[in-house]
């Protein structure tokens, strides 16, 4: 670390310097030092043994124009401030709310965006000892504590989120590998809950709580092996993507409680997951140092990205920089029915949805539209990477048009519904498939949209993805992802189980993390079966590296001294945070205040 700091001061190699700006095709992103948030003393936090710093946002529709609020945790502390974006940060000595916990630490948090007002916000906070607290940092109230006696789960809370569209339901995941569905209106009970099996499938089971009166948890999910590290709801709230320490991505139909599809990391646990704005793609990252792109419709890996030198801690799509391109009509050999089979229609626009900007500007003609997805990742290597997922990766069997108009969605003034996107329905590539229709696709790349980050290998997977069986119900996933929530605090003394060394359980060279279940825990053992990594490599679950395209990052920059734990894309800026407790705002091109 001393070397890195010397380098930042000009005493080391350029590659070790901490960057304060970077350039993409849109222009220059600049770090705004006056917009930085941290603990009031601005002293770097000694993060040894502490849980990752997390950030949540909410807009309270304040009439003054300062409606954004930020919540972040550093060690045992939780802070709540007005967030001013690219402008000068709020006075750090005057937080709206600050809470210091004894015996436990906040691990994650989420705001309810449906109920937030200038007078009241509902913030869920998960803790290292397993409890979940509901607080209102505006009213400075603590309303409820869930799993208070740790009768439901004694392990660390890894992720907490409100169920999309609900004012009362929320979902909590734990290091035990279990997830629980709660209702804020219900109590937890004074004895350990008893469960009844509701549904069981491959490496997962779902139980209901048996009791005379309705009590929390409403449901218990046991998923995979080891910790369930993170989950994310699809933009329409119908599906749930979970990533676990056993290296698996599992995607469920949330309401039907059914498994939609799975994917396996190249090795090690998966730590983070996110959805594309239209719900068609999922990106996961983890201990294999890769970002992996998985098609929801085809249930297969379509690309991997290599740029990080250590574990990937956060992945996120940039809904504001995703690009729409209109191309001239393409020659299509086949029947009208075949053509229609390859068209997936975007659904209705959701009110106030930034993601609806994916829609085509002019939907009056039938010209195909291609979408370039932008996503980012940060990792324990202190680096920020930005990636473009382009049509030569998404639809390798289709020739690209030679003439194209490039439209940057950031500049779109009004979103429209009814856009169409050509999607890959065959999902089948063979060796030597570099000639014929695919040759002009490579030669006719638009100069307006650099594609040097996309490096498809000549060798392609020989396995066929049977998406006709997998893609049922997938076409309806559209619209916007619920904005990232902001968290709240608590002033109670909560008992800790001294799981400070949980991070030491991560072994880089082991594909199967095994953290949880005692032999007496029959519910956990019900679905836990050892899976051999060697049997998944080279299959659709985990294609070999040479069998899928390898993405290179658009940019890969060292931006912090300590490991990065936050990446959030906002309209005027992107927000990062490191384990030292510094929350940084990077102005988008043209958004630097005068």
TrEMBL record:
Alphabetized Pfam families for the sequence: WD40
GO cellular component, one term: nucleus
Coiled coil: none
SMART domains xref list: WD40
Chain spans, region Disordered: 498-517
Compartments where found: Cytoplasm; Nucleus
InterPro entries, sorted: WD40/YVTN_repeat-like_dom_sf, WD40_repeat_dom_sf, WD40_rpt, WD_repeat_creC_regulators
SUPFAM superfamilies per the UniProt record, alphabetical: WD40 repeat-like
Residue ranges of WD repeats: 263-295
Basic residues composition bias: residue spans: 498-511
Key words of the record: Acetylation, Cytoplasm, Nucleus, Phosphoprotein, Repeat, WD repeat
Top-rank lineage group of the source organism: Eukaryota
Subunit structure, interactors included: Interacts with USP12; promotes translocation of USP12/WDR20 to the plasma membrane. Component of the USP12/WDR20/WDR48 deubiquitinating complex. Interacts with USP46; contributes to the cytoplasmic localization of the USP46/WDR20 complex. Component of the USP12/DMWD/WDR48 deubiquitinating complex.
Protein's name according to its UniProt entry: WD repeat-containing protein 20
Gene name in the database record: wdr20a
